[in-house]
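Students often ask why we bother encoding 3D structure as a string. The short answer is that it lets us treat folding as translation between two languages. Here is a chain of 167 residues written in the first language.
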Amino acid sequence: MPKQFKPQVSIEEEMSINRRTISEIKKVMWDSDNKETIFTCEGKIINIDIDRSGWYFISCKVCRKKVNSKDEFLWCDNCNKKACFPIPRYRIQLKVKDSSGMATFILFDSEAEKLLNISTKDLLNKSIEVRKSKIKLVFNIYYFTSVYNLKNVTFVRSPMKSSFLCK
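And here it is in the second language, the structure alphabet:
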């Protein structure tokens, strides 16, 4: 249904839509039937991984997928061609805990930019110290306990961790 025909809900209502715990979300069998399901989850950020995994990636301008170095240029495997005008995009890993368990939530470009109030490109132009402090300050102070809206979710399960890709 087009957005203009959907009933408008307040931010408070939106934050409680289909509320689940981390444990309940992990138990959902993700498939094409429920991939578009929206869940909300209230949790506490216990770690922001910007050192080990990085906080951004270089993407293809056309398909928004990560590009790789190939010879002397950047290559998009998805488009199967040279990435002419690659764009940096946010990819911030948040370790989130609630009363039922823990999971990694991966926050991508537009959502991260809304929270940080600065584009990936502009933040890259700052010093390393400013970058780290900006990301950690915003998430630790303003979003320490937060509600996460999980839509278009991809659930990644491995023996070591569970991750939710929030888009």
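Translate back mentally: The chain has one domain: 3-57+90-166. Keep this in mind for the problem set.
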